[in-house]
Amino acid sequence: MKKSIEEQLALYQHVIDAAPDIIHVISPDMRILLQNRRSRELLPSVKVGGHCYTCLHGRASPCGHCSVKKVFEDGQRQEHESVITASGLGREIIVHSTAAPIYDEDGNMIGALEILRDITERKKMEQALRDTARRLDRSNQIRELLLRMVRHDLGTPAGAILNATEYLLEDKERLGELLEDIEDIHLCASQIFRLIRDADVLSNVLTASHVTFQEINLSDLLADVIKKLAPVLKQSDVRIEAEIPEQLVIKGLPILKTVFENILVNGIKYGGAGGRLVISAYKSGSWVCIEIKDFGPGIPDEYKEKIFQEFERLAEDVPGTGLGLAIARQTVALHNGRIKVRDNPEGGAVFEVCLPEDPADESRH
Q1: CA pair distance 135, 133, nearest whole angstrom
Q2: Which of 309, 332, 330, 329 is nearest to 321 (CA)?
Q3: How many Å apart are CA 184 and CA 190, to the nearest integer?
Q4: Which of 189, 200, 239, 277 has the lowest CB atom count within 10 Å?
Q5: Rounded to 10 degrees, what is the CA torsion of 299, 303, 308, 309?
Q6: Strand 287-294 and strand 276-284: pairing?
Q7: Is 74 within 8 Å of 91 (Cβ atoms)?
Q8: How is domain 2-118 classified at the CATH fold level?
Q9: What are the pLDDT digits (tens) for 108-149?
Q10: In this structure, is the dihedral angle defined by the CA atoms of residues 141, 147, 148 and 153, taken in order, positive or negative?
């Protein structure tokens, strides 16, 4: 019978030689009946006729976890992982072993087919991912701790300074020569507050993984943003021309308000006093796009991508934290949308925000 098996297996030698995995056919007494080319390359110690446990593991008896042994015991397909020495590579490798019974025409088990797949690199990658996950988790914990410290330990005294200077500035005449200094202190305190707020918002956006979208009318949202910015617009002598349909309903998050607020504030700061901003909206298939056009000096090509990165600013002498547009991009990305900036043919820049009507609908992306 053994000779008959070997003769039959020889017919398939050229087939298994083409396989990238290590393949053995093993007899019920645990001897190697056939090996493929990959086995001969990586495991030169394995010889046809030798016991598999001796050739592979240098043992005098079968391994307790051996999948081939279990196949002969219960006749079921078995799997396990183990470490073997691949002398052809000069190192140990981790293999995933799959063993299945071989039956003759009468239903008698006459051997087992063993396939050893090298999973060393996969295991290294899995370990690296676990290590990275642990580091990220630790980093997130530290970041949240720092943010809490910043919000409380920095926000509290900054709030006290801001309130005190606001009170003093209610009666500027009595400040005399101190007026300019008090205004500078007030400006710095305001800057600290904006930085704390922006860092907090950006952190929430970056760590958002499971979100529940709700119906939002972008027309109403934009109207609220414009109303909120009315004092800033008046002070900067900038007017907004809005060309927005009454109903622009999408599924999203209220945080979208910060996207348009940050873009408009950016336009007010860099668009120049006495300027104007034009907001328009249109639908394109299952997308809603909002364009905000300013007529300022424009944005050089080399900065069109950089301005969406954290702490990147076009001008150091203009108040800001350098986080506004970074928050805008991350928030739009959370909605599976797109944001970009291009030149305004009339001079200035055009920010375009395109959002899918339903961010969860993968067929629309």
Answers
A1: 5
A2: 309
A3: 10
A4: 239
A5: -150
A6: antiparallel
A7: no
A8: Beta-Lactamase (3.30.450)
A9: 898 999 999 999 999 998 888 888 878 877 776 666 666 665
A10: positive
Largest CA distance in the chain: 112
The low-confidence residues of the chain, meaning pLDDT below 50, are: 1-2, 316-320, 365
Q: What is the CATH number of domain 211-365?
A: 3.30.565.10
Q: Which helix (H) or strand (E) holds 181?
A: helix 179-207
Distances (CA, A) of 150 to 143, 186, 204: 10, 19, 15
Here the tokens at position 94 are 């981790």
Backbone angles phi, psi at 287, to 5 degrees: -115, 150
- Candidates 228, 204, 239, 250; CA nearest to 353 is 250
State the Cα–Cα distance between residues 36 and 86, nearest whole angstrom: 15
> In the chain, what are the domain boundaries?
2-118, 120-207, 211-365
Q: Distance (Å, rounded) from C-alpha 195 to C-alpha 324?
A: 10
What's the CA gap between 242 and 278, in Å, rounded? 6
Cα separation of 9 and 328, whole Å?
65
Radius of gyration of the chain (CA): 34
